[in-house]
Amino acid sequence: MYNLKHNFNQNIIVSIAMLLSVIFVQSTLLSFSFAQEPEGLKNSKIPYSPIETVKSSVQKVEETYTAVGTVKPKSETMIESQVNAQVQKVHVQAGDRVNKGDILITLDDRQASSRRDGANAALNAARAGREQAMQGVNAAEAAHKEAKLQYNRVSGYYKSQAATKQELEMAESGYVQAKAALKRAKDALAGAEAGIRQAMGAVSETNVGLEFSKITAPTTGEVIKRMVEPGDLAMPGKPLISLRTETGFRIEAYIREGLISKVKIGMKIKAEITTLGVSCDAEVEEIIPYADPETRTFLIKAALPNTISSNLPQQSRELDSTKSPSKESKIEGIYPGMYAKLLIPESIQEVVLIPAKAVITTGQLELVMVQTSKDWQLRYIKTGKHSGDMVEVLSGLRGDEILGVGGFD
What we know:
- The structure is a single chain.
- The two termini are 67 Å apart.
- The strands form five sheets. A six-stranded antiparallel barrel has the order 2-11-14-13-12-17. Strands 1, 18, 19, 20 and 23 form a five-stranded antiparallel sheet that branches.
- The chain has helices at 2-35, 39-42, 110-159, 165-211, and strands spanning 52-55, 57-73, 76-80, 85-90, 97-98, 103-107, 214-216, 221-226, 233-234, 239-245, 249-256, 268-273, 278-287, 297-303, 307-309, 328-330, 339-355, 360-362, 365-371, 376-380, 382-387, 390-395, 402-405.
- Among the domains are: 63-74 and 246-347, Beta Barrel (Elongation Factor Tu (Ef-tu), domain 3); 79-107 and 213-245, CATH 2.40.50.100; 110-211.
- It is α+β, with helices and mostly antiparallel strands.
């Protein structure tokens, strides 16, 4: 019984202490707010007279989900070597602009030059062999012709019994041998011509290998990264230079899976690049149809336009009634890897909006002058997100009040 009474008394004491603390804090805030009232209201005995009046209103705003993303080039080319060779000279630095055909890297071409010289020597030898084979064919054709004529003569003599059978057989044997020699000579010529074609192929191959010693830009663009220095070994499959082609930029960002149905290919969504202080409408180009099992997010890619507006909203929501035309200009100072945001439309809500100039800020407090049926009343409010010259009011106003602006001494 004693413990129950003791606990009950402790609970009463704690409750009284908490109540006194709340009363003390409220009285302190009240005294502070009155102490911080504008001098024109606290000391003036005449009615408040604003410089101008504005109205609060209830309007629809679009709630958005901010997807953090990264600026990336639409097309990025990795330059690699086609042969194994030592890097002799790198002609570009990161940030340089290059045109199609410009030399980026020069490789050591001594081995390629040596192979080309050997291939040229082999080609010359093959051509000389063909000349010899052609001379052999000419001699074989002459011998074949002479043997054929001799065989025909002896054959005629034999029919008229002016030649013996032995003489006929000897003439026939000489004709057959000449015919075989002609065939061998023609085969040798064909082999020599095949050798020439093979040697010419080797020369072409070495010329291509020699051309690979000068690595050129495949298209016009900008060097993003240089990954090789003179003296390094270049080989197929090893990136040497990263080149961004002139196809523009896009933002790649991950959105939660609950919003994937709200994003479509070709859809225009608001994009912000905070570092540059710019915003624009980006067009969704690609949606990767795969959710990361760890983060439950989808990757989307939205293309940035060639021009971008120069007035960035202060918050992630844009109020429909305060949209104003932006001055368009070319994108300047944008680089791959920069921080960016995509504002994905999520829902439509009604909020109370007032001009930001009507808000009176006193320390941590926010107040407005509200016109009543008799006079002006100082009212506490709580503001939310800003958009241009308008501010959202979370509490303190209904959306149909007349507010005063200025008028304090």
